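Give me structure tokens for this 312-residue protein.
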Amino acid sequence: MSQISVVIPLYNKENSIGRTIKSVLSQTYQDFELIIVDDGSRDKSAEIVRSFTDKRIRLIQQENAGVSVARNTGIEASKAEIIAFLDADDEWLPVFLETIIRLRKKYPDAGLYGTAYEVHYPGSIVQKTYIANEGERILPSNFGAFVEFGGPIFNSSSFAAPKEVLEEIGGYPLRVKWSEDTMVWGKIALQFPIAYSPCVCSIYHQYSENNSTGIPEYLENPFLKYISTIEKDELLKLNNEQDFVMYCDLCRIATIRRNIYSGYCVKARQELSKVTSTPYIQKKRQLLLMSYLPRYIVNNVHKHAKVLSYLK
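Here you go.
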């Protein structure tokens, strides 16, 4: 039995899936199984997967049901105790699995193992590393790390988790349009320690084919929706309550920004009233102002923000 299962959800990624698979096969740690769940692709993605003859690769095909269902299918089919996730348009550097296995041995009680990563824009590369000089460690505050960093310290292609933990939290949420990873990470962080390595082991390709940046519907953050069902007294038991509140506001701000870009300004203003953390007052004011701007101006702001991100 392999030590680790790799799950790749696949939907219409014929231009990148070959590169992604090669990055897995090039790992320094080779004791893995690779499960690719084709979620009803209509291009040549499955054909490209079949061109690889490595016996560790399993291709599962299903009708299109969304990325969360595809990942859950991979979780169910996996045979190892640790599951690592990789999106079909991202890639790993050669030491990713080696780093995950090392973290697992050092911190066997952790519920999630994440690493630093790079974001590749069309014209530049940005490293996302959280406090490199502290080395590999258990985070003292699961939510505080994201708050201090201003966003995720790992991404959907730079983490792994024990299969039993993923099953305990119910896997990936269904009928969710975006930020399904936030839900998974948040539910794990509420119950388990998080282990982190500042080693850059993953590459996230921004603005790749067929991504989620153009979703036109009104979006809700699934983790915020989830915690609204938990008794407040239970949340108050968290030893990092202030970090948790700020983390929720950070999630809320990201969702509000997306909804303003999509034209849901009235609903966005209603959500802004729930942002209470003092460090985010300036961001709150900026988003409030943006919500009153004419749609064509907001569209231009969004367009230029994307263009400028190429130069980061």
